[in-house]
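seq as requested:
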Amino acid sequence: MPRRVKLGRAEFRASLGIPHSFTSIVAVPTVHVVDHTPLSPERVLAAAHDFSERRADLWPDVHVEHLRVHEEGETFAEVTEGNPWPIGHVWERLRYDWSTPGVVKGTVVDSNIFKPGSSWEIRATPSNAGTRVEVIGVRHLSGIRGRMLYPFFPLGLAKQTVAAHLRHFLSTLEAKASDVG
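struct tokens:
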């Protein structure tokens, strides 16, 4: 009678020919999008760290009923943001920092979809026609919701979504600036 060998999870997957990366949550590639606006870098960055109820108007993935400011200082804030997704309510608590000139960066402290240390940042630099705006997201998925989303990230969905959200953010700011001017 053949001897039975108890395999661990990784060995069992390998015995079936399933690659490790196919069954594990790994770092999502960095998402990097660039856009331009006639607004000043200061205006863009001030709006990026505005945690009032206006934030929900600027960013489509922030809902005011899921926005909570825990702590705010001169160059930082700790904020929970979230919204309903088709896979359920998604939230993240971020430590925002804008002490570096030209950058607002949010680092995940806790989340039901992203691992701590995941981040997104917005950079605004002067250009000939106004401001060059970059959003860089490094997202490490976790949990059941992350597993549900993982197959969509390689398809470019994350980059398309971030680009659309950045354009919405800038268009909203530009419209408000033209209303004032």
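Strands lie at 31-37, 68-72, 76-85, 88-97, 103-111, 119-127, 130-138.
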